[in-house]
Structure formats: structure tokens, C-alpha cells
Design a protein that fits this description.
The chain is of the alpha/beta class. The protein has helices at residues 6-20, 44-48, 60-72, 91-98, 101-104, 134-138, 151-163, 215-227, 246-256, 271-283, 307-310, 314-324, 330-342, and strands spanning 2-5, 24-28, 53-55, 76-80, 114-119, 144-147, 168-173, 180-183, 199-202, 207-211, 233-237, 240-242, 259-266, 292-296. It contains 13 helices and 14 strands.
């Protein structure tokens, strides 16, 4: 086991995938000599050369379009979108080409493209640098969408995504790039949990708390705090947002009877809404209370000085737990008022 930051774990995952398969190459803005804005591709240019570590123009649509052509020719391109808010110029290529070519050609054309996106807030960044666009891609049939929350998953799931014949949108919470954890660099992918499976990050009996990405750490903190109040929270790290591992979720909800979902993205038509709708359909007879969402507010991502008011925190999650346990307080009223006014 090695103690690595998430950023270094991702770097090692890319290095291993490129060493194992000469058809794997990486593309993006400033990923070569600079090693990427977050240094995730640091050192890869020296090891693999400019033919496999490609510095591109500042043109996201062109980057993804080039990746489509490479995939046609049997390569496995890994695309880095420099920041989450920069993915929108490539949205047409991702939705109209990457997601549909395999289906449109009845399987004759594969699109083994991994689209890495440094994602979400909490780093005090400027506008267009703290977006949470996952719902757009979850809504798009033909894409796998995953989000990592720890260095071990970052290393393993990135390798799994690159090895997959399906296109994968790979979300990396940028505020966790410097978080550390133990990583088994020698793990065999055949022995690792598939990237489509959720992970029970903490077992509990009273409430099921569903989340992903950087919010997993916040959810675990909330579960620890709730324990002092005699409440046992089961925290599930979804890992995969499309497809969703409903088998793991259902098993938890049928025991606890109560569900809270938290994510940074806006509330309206977010991933949490789909999770709650699906859980309600599948587990209606087991629910003891209406599920509750704890999300970012329905506003454009705020300036850095205000983002702490936007991001779901421990207090807002614990308030939601109180609500599903029928212990409402004033914060729930305030959240409803804020979200209502922002629409």
C-alpha cells in the first residue's frame, strides 16, 4: 500500500493504463509540458512522448471530436477537460457522437473514450470553474458517468474507465486532489469492485444517506456527529451515477426506511431527484418518511466568498436527517424558502 493524494493516484492510474496498452493516449489543454493545471498528467510526456501525451488547442469541441476519430481507429483516448465549466463547448460532440455511435452502428463502432473532468466547488475558484454538470450526462443514454471520492477509487476506477469499451464521463472532485489515502497500486482489475457498484462507506440502521464525490466526506462527518445524538446513519457512496447500483441502495433503504440524498449540484431536476423518484418506486412500502434532498441552491454558482453558503454542509445534512426522523427545525423552512425564491 502507498499513501498518495488523489491527484497522484489519478496520475499513477493514467501511467499504468498507458504502460499496459499502447493504444491509450491522453489529450487536453496544457497537459504535456505543464502536466495539467492540477498536475494530474505530470511526468507522462517525458515517459510516453508527444505522440501519446498531446497538448491541444483551447477548443473542447475539437478535442472531443478528435477523440472520436481516434476511437474509430482503435485507440483509447483519455480527454482532460481543464475545468468543469469548460465542458459545455464539447457538449454537442459528447451527446450527439460519443454517446450514440455505438448504438447507431449496432455495436460495430465502439467509443472507448474517457472524459476526465475536474469538478465541483469548494476551492474558491472563479466563475465557470466550480460547476456540477453531472445531471446533463446522466440524462444522456449511452454514457457511463462516475464520480470518485477517495484515492483508491480514483486509481482503480480510472483504469477501469480506460479499459471499458463504453464512453465514460469521469468526475474528479477538485477539492479532494490533495486529500490522502492508502492506495494498492498492484491491485488486479479483475479482483476490484466493478466501477458500476456503490460502496457502503459507513453502516447504519436509522437513515440511508446517498451521496457521491466530495460530499462523501461531509456525509461521513454528519454520520459521526449524529451518532452522538443516538442516530445511526448508513452512508452510501454511489461511485457510479449512470448506471446506478440500485440493488445496494434498495437493500439499505428496506432496512432503514428513511432516505436523504445530498449533492453539490442544483436541486431542480438534479441527480437527487432521480434517485428519490427511483427509490420511491422501488421501496415505497418500506419508507417511513418522505425522502429529503440536500443540494446546492438553484442559482448560478456563487462567487468564492459566498460558496460556503451554497455547498451542503454538515448542519444542513443533519437537519434533513431530523426531517426524515420527524424532528423538523427552522433550517428546513429556511432551505425551502431559499430554493423557492431562487427559481
Amino acid at each position: 500500500m502507498s499513501l498518495l493524494t488523489m491527484g497522484k493516484a489519478l496520475n499513477e492510474g493514467l501511467r499504468r493504463a498507458m504502460a499496459d496498452d499502447p493504444k491509450v493516449l491522453v489529450m487536453g489543454e496544457d497537459i504535456g509540458k505543464l502536466g495539467g493545471v492540477f498536475r494530474i498528467t505530470d511526468g507522462l510526456l517525458d515517459q510516453f512522448g508527444a505522440a501519446r501525451v498531446v497538448d491541444t488547442p483551447l477548443a473542447e469541441s475539437g478535442i472531443v471530436g478528435t477523440a472520436v476519430g481516434l476511437a474509430y481507429r482503435g485507440y483509447r483516448p483519455v480527454v482532460e477537460i481543464q475545468f468543469d465549466g469548460f465542458v459545455y463547448p464539447a457538449f454537442d460532440q459528447i451527446v450527439c457522437q460519443v454517446a450514440k455511435l455505438h448504438y447507431r452502428t449496432q455495436g460495430r463502432v465502439k467509443m472507448p473514450i474517457t472524459i476526465r473532468i475536474p469538478w465541483a466547488g469548494g476551492v474558491g475558484a472563479a466563475e465557470h470553474h466550480s460547476e456540477s454538470p453531472e445531471a446533463y450526462f446522466v440524462h444522456t443514454s449511452g454514457l457511463r458517468v462516475v464520480a470518485v471520492s477517495n484515492p483508491q477509487d480514483a486509481y482503480v476506477m480510472l483504469r477501469q474507465a480506460i479499459a471499458s469499451d463504453d464512453p465514460v464521463v469521469f468526475f474528479e472532485p477538485k477539492r479532494l486532489y490533495h486529500s490522502k489515502g492508502e492506495v494498492d497500486l498492484d491491485v488486479d482489475l479483475a479482483d476490484a469492485a466493478p466501477m458500476g457498484l456503490a460502496r457502503v462507506a459507513r453502516e447504519g440502521d436509522d437513515v440511508t444517506l446517498l451521496t457521491y464525490g466530495a460530499q462523501v466526506a461531509t456525509a461521513l462527518d454528519a454520520a459521526t456527529a449524529a451518532e452522538d445524538d443516538g442516530v445511526s446513519i448508513e452512508v452510501i457512496d454511489l461511485r457510479s451515477l449512470s448506471p446506478v447500483d440500485y440493488r445496494t441502495i434498495e437493500a439499505s433503504v428496506r432496512r432503514t426506511g428513511r432516505v436523504v440524498v445530498t449533492h453539490e449540484a442544483a436541486r431542480e431536476a438534479g441527480v437527487g431527484a432521480e434517485l428519490i423518484a427511483s427509490v420511491t418506486e422501488r421501496c415505497f412500502n418500506y419508507l417511513e418518511a418522505a425522502p429529503v434532498r440536500v443540494t446546492g441552491h438553484d442559482v448560478p454558482y456563487p462567487p468564492a466568498k459566498l460558496e460556503k453558503h451554497h455547498l451542503p454542509d454538515l448542519d444542513r445534512i443533519l437537519d434533513a436527517v431530523d426531517r426524515v426522523l420527524d424532528r423538523p427545525n427552522s433550517q428546513s423552512v429556511l432551505d425551502d424558502a431559499v430554493n423557492g425564491a431562487s427559481r
